[in-house]
């Protein structure tokens, strides 16, 4: 029989144990967004630990968006969804993008891959109501073509394409990518021209209305890559 190697057992920090217990408490008590967490002293007595341990665990929960902490008030359960989860990395993502042009290139590539896939789904699944929302977003782009509201309207059009998927993860990721690209869009749109941007959106919408996934994918690729719209 071969000799068993000695392994070091990693002991968890007390705050890690309390952190896991707090997540269990939220789930077991079915606490909803806005519900109050137990008082700090109550948690100290319940877990048999000191205030620093409880506070470290609570801060970790707050950093994940699972609770909100305000001075002088009891912590409350936060609203956790895909948008709030991605929001936790928002500042770090913006810092990375501003620090390296290569990271912006990577984001462009990710967006092109992601949105060409989304528009295929949209062309397959779009309902008449979905088409109306896309037409409304496109009408806003026409209305605001000479104003600063053009960019938000453009983003709304792409966000509606993501929403047609019915997948909240896709919607949240699409929202994040569009927000991260926002600082770089205006210069590229000036170079490209808003009239051409509008025309390409009309073509994409036409393929979605025709339930033509291949055509929609090709049009989106042309829109994002071949003419450099970001």
In percent, how helical is the residue content? over 70%
CATH architecture verdict of the largest domain? Up-down Bundle
Remind me, CATH topology of the largest domain? Four Helix Bundle (Hemerythrin (Met), subunit A)
Strand content: under 5%
Mean residue pLDDT: 86
Q: How many H/I helices?
A: 11
The class by helix and strand makeup works out as mainly alpha
Tell me the strand order in the biggest sheet: 1-2
- Within CATH, the superfamily of the largest domain carries the name GntR ligand-binding domain-like
Please give the number of β-strands: 2
Features:
Arc Repressor Mutant, subunit A, Four Helix Bundle (Hemerythrin (Met), subunit A), mainly alpha, 2 domains, 2% strand, 230 residues
What does this 3D model show about the protein?
The structure is a single chain. The protein is mostly helical and 230 residues long. It has two domains: 14-80, Orthogonal Bundle (Arc Repressor Mutant, subunit A); 86-226, Four Helix Bundle (Hemerythrin (Met), subunit A), CATH 1.20.120. 71% of the residues lie in helices and 2% in strands. The chain is built from eleven helices and two strands. It has a two-stranded antiparallel ribbon with strand order 1-2. A hairpin with a 7-residue loop joins β1 and β2 (76-77). α5 crosses α6, α6 (101-125) runs antiparallel to α11 (213-226) and α10 packs antiparallel against α11. The longest helix has 25 residues, at 101-125. The mean pLDDT is 86.
